[in-house]
Arylsulfatase
Amino acid sequence: MKGLLLLAVAALGQGLPDGSAFADPSPNNNPNTPPQKVLQQDSHSPLAPSDGSQRPNIVFILVDDQDLQMDSLLYTPRINRHLAQQGTFYANHFVTTALCCPSRVSLWTGKQAHNTNVTEIYPPYGGYPKFVAEGHNDNWLPLWLQAGGYDTYYTGKLFNAHTVDNYDAPFVNGFNASDFVLDPYTYQYRRPVYQRNRDAPVNYHGQHTVDVLAAKTLGLLDDALAGERPFFLGVAPVAPHSNLEMADETDTTSFRFSAPIPASRHQHLFPEARVPRTPNFNPDRPSGVNWIRRLPQQNASSVAYNDEFYRNRLRALQAVDELVEDIVGRLERAHALDHTYLFYTSDNGYHIGQHRLHPGKECGFEEDIRVPMFVRGPGVPAGHEVDSVTTHIDLAPTLFRIAGLAPKEEFDGTAMPLTAAEIEADRGSRQEHVNVEYWGKAGFEGAFGRAADGGPTTFLNNTYKALRVVSPRFNLYYSVWCSDEHQLYDLTVDPYQLHNLYPDIANPQNKGRGITIGGHPADQVASRLDALLMVLKSCQGATCIRPWQTLHPAGDVASLQDALEGRFDAFYASQVRVEYGWCELGYIVEAEGPQVPRIYQETHWSDWV
């Protein structure tokens, strides 16, 4: 996604990609300042002083379902001005589960979903009740920050299945003050229900949910600024998630998703916008595996509907764009902006039309797992773009570093580089892998993705383990499905993930003869990726950060390139393979197949034959 911010910043002064005019409330800003690739060392440090004084504040904005690959950032001029121009964009930032509730739990605990055991949005495998049952309500980020000397606040969406019936069973732990939007009204844009602290829920029927959230955000921000301690404020708008339509409010299973509803002041915007027509948009030939490969090509009516669905996502984002500017303005007036870190990201990405998919997420493609990620704050280079691989499980360790707290051994991620010095130090040493995992079902949103009864389309056996590798030499995606189907994409030559290399590699007649990846035989690369995924699929703590050390305890392998040395060929050819026992809807260890890889020992090559 290199160059995206240049386009986004340019869009501020030249209109939007569809030719629409957009009023910029700050015309004196220079919209044509490109991201600076030469870093200037800043005297500020994100690390808190040892005496606990003057520690920075943290404002964390977590939107719902915002895409990166479909150019939504070209339509958010305020976010671009206040965060892209004044902060750093992390171009290779990924989620580890492409679904809101498990992704959010991973973010707020610093753990992979196989370690949180929250893998779905509703019980028995996910949702707020599962979060509580797994003990996370007593052991997660806001509690850790409070113990470390921070006041903590939160408003907006927390988790799915956090409802008007169970919000007090138990109350959410860890916040000085909170104001949550609750199911089954979370995704009802014009009839949200919010619940403050330990008060009863309040219905805001007829008001736009993001406007309600904006007022609550600024109120909590005022409270935080008036306090004597540094603060953390989480802000979680539901936009641009789809709107939820309930047929019967007494039956939470009778619903369907339609396009998001923008605030009335934004309904007219972007009349000519449409989903980018990338090569993987509604392709002539099917792609992917499993249920994805069986999808029919969308017809003209479906494409037109999905384009309007896309426009309403962009329109719904405008209230979020305004909210970001409101937050920055309030911090600036309080003289707190220079002492506050602002984070902006999404719980997962989104697809519309790519690989013939109707609106939704839950897949391992780039559209679903790569998300916007901005950081602005003390010591963070302005207008910069970072190529290092970062993930949502790195965010809790990052906030710990900002707060001056020692990282927990249980963290499956590591702090993101924030300052110029950290970015430079990370450039050649940071991990190159992302562990992506998913269990259970997938579904579509919108009219053309509905089942015959009008409800959401559901695909079972959407269970897979996946691996992304991003380095100067490799740009790869590898996955193993519970159906025993595999995917391997070389994004260097196939950035839209249209040609799955694995069937040719696995073909016993040629074993991928003639196919190379990064100058290496593709079957050898695949063997290393599978071994790496074997470690990551059940990793914990440091093993998730340095998985090669599990395979090579001597420490002589730290990257895919290292592992491709010829002396390891026999070892990887004999390695335990990733596979499932059977397909499950949640994380059931017995169904997960082999858990332990072989360990490399410096023995004679014949021992591995």
